[in-house]
Design a protein that fits this description.
Helix content of chain A: over 70%
Low-confidence stretches of chain A: none
Radius of gyration of chain B: 25 Å
Mean pLDDT of chain A: 93
Low-confidence stretches of chain B: none
Shape of chain B: globular
Oligomer: heterodimer
Largest sheet of chain B: 2 strands, antiparallel
Radius of gyration of chain A: 16 Å
Distance between the termini of chain B: 61 Å
Structural class of chain B: mainly alpha
Strand content of chain B: under 5%
Structural class of chain A: mainly alpha
Number of helices of chain B: 12
Number of helices of chain A: 2
Mean pLDDT of chain B: 88
Distance between the termini of chain A: 27 Å
Number of domains of chain B: 2
């Protein structure tokens, strides 16, 4: 059984990694990299979370056949 | 801040070097009169490919696709072996897979090692192109006589990233970035392995994900070899996330290699009297004073 909380934790891990790699690619200074990693990771995390919530709402509220 | 970039003739030579290297690994080095490097790259890539194909009974070609018009095959699409372009094209036509379309060659005991070696050949061919590009920069952009020569050229730095994520940055003195990239990429890869219960590095089961995983370089190659005997008793619940993590780690390593190359290139070009330094010098150079006109000689 897949737990949504574990998926959330995995999303946090992936967002953090993505943020670090992109910031290292874009910036050179350690302080800029740290700030950029936080910003980019958070942006990605929130974007995926919003898409997931929309997908959940569509699947439960729109696509599920009502009795 | 404006970053230095190679002059136009250098960029053209880099594009040519990458093209020649992808056609035949080592060809660009040979044309640049680096015969020892050319021989090493050529033999390494070709031996890995031929041995890998032999061990796996050429079943790698079951994961490729012919591309052409009608019955004629123009190009055999084969990732990642196809980066070693010419040899792959010839071998795909001459030696068909022992299964011819099947993807379950369990009777080949060394197939995992074979897949790994042939994939390493393709990935190394890509990095051979990066190495050739780095050498082109070194030979085309001559350092300023007073400048201290950087220890590593961009191609070597990119190649080091293939040995371990972040190693290329470490070699150019960017220790913070090296550690950050190593933790981010290797951490993602390891979590992915845990989620997939160490069975997600399998070409037969996940051929498309496997290509991305191989881009991580040596750590993924060794992990793939170590995990080749893993058997599943059921589908792991987080296998999809595991595959996503390990494959993304491979692609992130390519980003790290590109960045390491670019930073080392910047280090090199900032020490050459090329267009960048010339433009910097113009910005600070005071305007020359107009010369005073020579006095007209008095008539005798």
């Amino acid at each position: 059984m897949i737990s949504p909380w574990v998926m959330m934790l995995l999303l946090i891990c992936f967002s953090a990694s993505l943020g670090v790699v992109l910031s290292c690619y874009r910036d050179e200074e350690p302080a800029l990299i740290l700030r950029g990693a936080l910003r980019r990771g958070l942006n990605f995390f929130l974007a995926v979370l919003v898409l997931a919530l929309i997908a959940y709402w569509v699947s439960v509220g729109v696509l599920l056949p009502s009795g | 801040m404006t970053e230095p970039s190679p002059a136009k003739p250098t960029r053209e030579r880099i594009a040519a070097a990458v093209g020649w290297s992808l056609l035949i690994p080592g060809l660009a080095h040979f044309l640049a009169d680096r015969k020892r490097d050319a021989l090493i790259w050529f033999l390494t890539c070709q031996i890995l490919l031929v041995v890998g194909l032999t061990l796996a009974g050429n079943t790698q070609f079951d994961f490729g696709r012919p591309f052409g018009f009608g019955d004629s095959t123009l190009i055999w699409l084969q990732i990642p072996e196809g980066s070693n372009f010419l040899t792959t094209q010839i071998l795909a036509r001459v030696y068909p897979s022992v299964e011819i379309g099947g993807t379950t060659p369990e009777h080949l005991p060394w197939r995992h090692l074979g897949y790994l070696l042939s994939a390493a050949s393709g990935v190394l061919a890509m990095f051979c192109a990066a190495h050739a590009a780095g050498q082109t920069i070194v030979h085309s952009e001559i350092l300023h006589p007073a400048a201290e020569k950087p220890r590593w050229h961009p191609g070597q730095v990119a190649l080091a990233t293939l040995i371990f994520p972040g190693l290329g940055h470490w070699m150019t003195g960017r220790c913070f970035k090296a550690v950050a990239l190593a933790i981010a990429i290797f951490g993602l890869f390891f979590i992915g392995l845990l989620l997939g219960e160490f069975g997600d590095l399998d070409r037969q089961r996940h051929p498309y994900y496997w290509v991305g995983q191989m881009l991580l370089g040596l750590p993924a190659w060794l992990a793939s070899l170590a995990a080749s005997g893993v058997r599943y008793t059921g589908v792991p619940p987080y296998i999809d996330a595991g595959l996503l993590f390990t494959t993304s780690a491979g692609f992130f390593n390519v980003i790290a290699a590109l960045d390491a190359f670019h930073r080392a290139e910047t280090d090199w070009l900032s020490k050459t009297p090329g267009p960048y330094l010339a433009s910097q010098a113009k910005a600070v150079e005071p305007k020359p004073k107009p010369k005073p006109k020579p006095e007209a000689e008095a008539p005798a």
